[in-house]
Amino acid sequence: TSKAAVTVIGLGPMGQATVRTLLAGGHPVTVWNRTASRADGVVAEGARRAASPAEALAASELVVLSLTDFAAMYDILEPAAGALAGKTVVNLSSDTPQTSRQAAEWVAARGANLLVGGIMCPAPMVGTEAAYVYYSGPRAEFEAHESTLRLIGAPRFVGTDPGLAQLYYQAQLTVFLGGISAVLQATALVASAGVPAEDFVPEAITTLDDTSAMLGSHDDLRAALSQRQYPGELSTVTMMGATADHIVAASTEAGIDTALPRAVQSHYQRAISAGHGQDGWASLYEVIRHMAA
Ligand code: NDP
Predict the structure, then answer these.
(1) Which of the residues 34, 50, 80, 177 has an alpha carbon 20 to 30 A from that of 232?
(2) Ligand 1: which atom is nearest the Cα of residue 34?
(3) Which residue of 34, 78, 91, 120 sits with most ligand 1 atoms within 8 Å of its CB, as the best mutation to test the pocket?
(4) Is 122 close to ligand 1, i.e. is its CB under 6 Å away?
(5) Which helix (H) or strand (E) holds 62?
(6) Are residues 180 and 282 in the same domain?
(7) Do 152 and 190 fall into the same domain?
(8) ipTM of model over 0.95
(9) What SS3 state is found at 189?
């Protein structure tokens, strides 16, 4: 049986990897990119080049967008909106949940359906076992295209509210970007004393692994968050907060950036002010879950 045609709009590293994965899966793929030369590679590998967004939309019922943000979707689709009716648009671009919800309404008003996706892997891992993708939006459209979408990465449908996929995506990227900044911050602190950065960075990464293992084996964390009880017999917010103060002071002495250490310090300071000094570190959640007054 012949595989469904797919259109991919946006050929950055992620869009190109998506096209290659779909071609390898036997799908006819039509592509369009604002900077036309960026399509040359995938066209040489078998993708069909559309001359315009409207032509790209006309080629397939399933249209995958891989763009910097959702604003780019409007730039591309607004002039071609007449060609949208009946399409399923899968937007794998990063943006906020609210922006995703507005986009779902905009697409629906033009007679099409929007599935919002949050793709959880770097470009070289698209289409591999390690890749997974959060999806939200109309369930019937998701199920209709699930077998094709599965080629990109294991699909995880998280709900019909179109904002949910990007909510999960931004949550996971909070962990990812936070971890990256923490490792580089730690490395800069040690390097300030003349230690080669490349010598320390593997040690910092080991601590990231240890932190992950500690959190992963921390059954108490789930219990604490579900019961909103934060026992502090092993380590308290007051003790950890003193360390957070020392990190700010050491970073200041070293003459490096203090934005990240100060953000962490403020969680501890505010938890202590809120009466969590003798509770465990999980009680920071009570501070973090509200916007600061
Ligand atoms: P890039 O930002 O490199 O590519 C962006 C694409 O969007 C390009 O094709 C670019 O066109 C197009 N674009 C941007 N603005 C406009 C506009 N106003 N009008 C028309 N086209 C526009 O992205 P990536 O491929 O790296 O990523 C795509 C999405 O996937 C992003 O939202 C990213 O956050 C997400 N993502 C990326 C990962 C990664 O490792 N790279 C991992 C997981 C998710 P042009 O070529 O003309 O500039």
Answers:
(1) 177
(2) 47
(3) 34
(4) yes
(5) strand 62-65
(6) yes
(7) no
(8) yes
(9) helix
For a mutational test of ligand 1's pocket, the pick from 7, 14, 20, 33, i.e. the residue with the most ligand atoms closer than 8 A to its C-beta, is 14
Which residue lies with its CA nearest to atom 19 of ligand 1? 72
Tracing tokens 């607004």 back to the chain, one arrives at: 78
Nearest C-alpha neighbor of 87 from the set 62, 122, 54: 62
Total residues found in the chain within this entry: 293
First to last CA, the chain: 59
Residue 94 alpha carbon, nearest atom of ligand 1: 32
Show pLDDT as tens, one digit a residue, over the chain (293 residues). Answer: 689 999 999 999 999 999 999 999 999 999 999 999 999 999 999 999 999 999 999 999 999 999 999 999 999 999 999 999 999 999 999 999 999 999 999 999 999 999 999 999 999 999 999 999 999 999 999 999 999 999 999 999 999 999 999 999 999 999 999 999 999 999 999 999 999 999 999 999 999 999 998 887 767 788 899 999 999 888 899 999 999 999 999 999 999 999 999 999 999 999 999 999 999 999 999 999 998 87
Fill in the amino acid letter for 15: G
Question: Whole domain around residue 141: which residue ranges?
Answer: 6-160
Tell whether 293 is covered by a domain: no
Could you tell me if residue 256 is inside a domain? Answer: yes
